[in-house]
């Protein structure tokens, strides 16, 4: 299976990392608005935080490509079935779940909407194999498996920080040394982008309505401020270390 042209739609960390990863094996177009011509093999859509923006982009994609073109859509905050419901040809949608540091692992989770043509799974597997990633097929639920669990850990760490259980650095050290995690949850969130963590938590809370999924108020506040880590240098550590005294000068 060969793929010549890959279009990646989004302006977030994941879109940028996917673009860099595919460049060695395909012609890659990274766009954040109106798209492309019809001669593309696959479109990868990466919006997580803004559901209405995601719906708009999905509509633009369908208007720009062949009815049989595979659309891979990251579904951290919504289900693949919901994304597929926005399309006239829903059978070619495949949902996938990962964070922007996916190259540190070798697995991307994939979910099929109820409307899907299962043959597109093999196409998705072929696409991700180009960037040395295997796929694992999971049920179509918000957040998938490891993004959901990691987001819950970050959420609890944010509550611990808010409640002054410990400082950010101490929380991260405790989790690294106590559980042998490669990174502490707060620095992990800063690396992959707090906006995607918030998208998972918000999606779970919206879909399931359980209090355990409610995003910590501090996470919501940092996302509103744009202090999401990633390309910026502001997130949990910056929030904690800022001086109220300096703000008054």
User: Would you tell me the overall average pLDDT?
Assistant: 92
Tell me what the CATH architecture of the largest domain is.
3-Layer(aba) Sandwich
What integer value in Å does the Rg equal?
19 Å
The number of helical runs is 11
**In this structure, how is the largest beta sheet organized?**
7 strands, mixed
Q: Unreliable runs, pLDDT <50, ≥5 residues?
A: none
Number of domains: 2
Share in helix = 40-55%
Structural class: alpha/beta
Total strand segments: 7
What do we call the CATH topology of the largest domain? Answer: Rossmann fold
Secondary-structure element sequence? EHEEHEHEEHEHHHHHHH
Distance between the termini: 62 Å
CATH domain class of the largest domain: Alpha Beta
Taking strands numbered 1, 2, ... along the chain, how are they ordered across the largest sheet?
2-1-3-4-5-6-7
What does this structure look like?
By secondary structure, this protein is of the alpha/beta class. It is globular. A seven-stranded mixed sheet has the order 2-1-3-4-5-6-7, with helices on both faces. It has two domains: 5-138, NAD(P)-binding Rossmann-like Domain (Rossmann fold); 146-247, N-(1-d-carboxylethyl)-l-norvaline Dehydrogenase, domain 2 (Orthogonal Bundle). It has helices at 13-22, 51-64, 80-85, 120-129, 146-162, 168-179, 185-192, 194-208, 217-225, 236-241, 244-247, and strands at 5-9, 27-31, 42-45, 70-74, 93-97, 107-111, 134-138. The longest helix is centred in the middle third of the chain and has 17 residues, at 146-162. Helix 5 (146-162) crosses helix 7 (185-192) and helix 5 (146-162) packs across helix 8.
């Amino acid at each position: 299976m060969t793929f010549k042209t890959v279009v990646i739609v989004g302006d977030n960390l994941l879109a940028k990392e996917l673009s860099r990863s595919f460049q060695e094996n395909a012609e890659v177009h990274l766009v954040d608005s109106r798209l492309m011509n019809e001669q593309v093999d696959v479109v990868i859509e990466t919006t997580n935080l803004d559901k209405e923006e995601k719906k708009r982009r999905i509509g633009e994609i369908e208007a720009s490509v062949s009815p049989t073109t595979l659309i891979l859509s990251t579904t951290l905050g919504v289900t693949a079935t919901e994304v597929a419901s926005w399309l006239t040809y829903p059978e070619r949608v495949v949902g996938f779940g990962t964070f922007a540091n996916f190259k540190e692992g070798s697995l991307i989770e994939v979910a099929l909407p109820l409307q899907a043509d299962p043959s597109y799974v093999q196409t998705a597997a072929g696409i991700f194999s180009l960037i040395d990633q295997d796929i694992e097929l999971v049920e179509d639920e918000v957040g998938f498996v490891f993004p959901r669990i990691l987001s819950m850990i970050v959420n609890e760490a944010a509550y611990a920080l808010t409640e002054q259980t410990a400082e950010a650095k101490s929380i991260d050290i405790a989790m690294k040394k106590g559980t042998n995690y490669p990174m502490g949850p707060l620095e992990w969130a800063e690396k992959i982008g707090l906006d995607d963590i918030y998208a998972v938590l918000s999606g779970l809370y919206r879909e399931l309505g359980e209090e355990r999924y409610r995003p910590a108020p501090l996470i919501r506040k940092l996302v509103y401020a744009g202090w999401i880590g990633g390309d910026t240098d502001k997130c949990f550590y910056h929030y904690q270390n800022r001086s109220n005294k300096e703000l008054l000068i």
